[in-house]
Amino acid sequence: MANQYPSGKPNPHQKNSKFAKNYGPRRNERIRVPRVRVIGPDGTQVGVMPTAEALALARKYKLDLIEVSPNAEPPVCRILDYGKYLYEEAKKQKSNKTSTAKVKEVKLRPHIDRHDYETKMRNAERFLFSGNKLKITMMLRGREMEFKNIAFDIVKRAIADLNHMGHADSEPKLMGKNIGVTISPVAQNQRKLKYSGEDEDIPEEDDSASDSE
């Protein structure tokens, strides 16, 4: 095959080789285009110049010339420390993963019984344990609005019962006929299951009984 050596190993110089993808962005002498647009160490635009001149400028700063936008015309390069660049990219990827965490919801009612409450707390704990944000919604219907104080107490109790797994982003608030609060999970190495075992399945949604009462 064209992209393999006689030994059968992938040719690292072949552009479409999977092996070549492991190198990361092109930098320094690996940048083969004749001209590049350069961004300086402080993030300012330096301008378009011959690649050899850009590389000499990077060396003047004792830094690397890194191709960050290879498909631009001409390609865009930054003058940076390569190790710092990799660190920044890793932080971005971690931040993107964190931002994709789902918001799960647990719904409560003012007259919820002990069994249903415990089931709700197990589900809530599992949601937080998995890194999801949790929304607790206390639903008040009709004359249940007369029991707002009781409803607030139940929500505050739920926050306290989950404080080993997450912390409330704000105080519970009455919004229309619902009382709501959002809980964010603690750091992963601090999450300890209290109401269920690690081998139990994580529910997709909280569908325990009191939601439809």
UniProtKB/TrEMBL annotation:
Recorded GO MF terms: translation initiation factor activity
One Pfam family this sequence matches: IF3_N
Protein location: Cytoplasm
Residues annotated as domain Translation initiation factor 3 C-terminal: 102-185
InterPro entries, per database record: T_IF-3_C_sf, T_IF-3_N_sf, Translation_initiation_fac3_CS, Translation_initiation_fac_3, Translation_initiation_fac_3_C, Translation_initiation_fac_3_N
Residue span of region Disordered: 1-33, 190-213
Keyword Phosphoprotein set for record: no
Function according to Swiss-Prot or TrEMBL: IF-3 binds to the 30S ribosomal subunit and shifts the equilibrium between 70S ribosomes and their 50S and 30S subunits in favor of the free subunits, thus enhancing the availability of 30S subunits on which protein synthesis initiation begins.
The protein, known as: Translation initiation factor IF-3
Native source species: Intestinicryptomonas porci
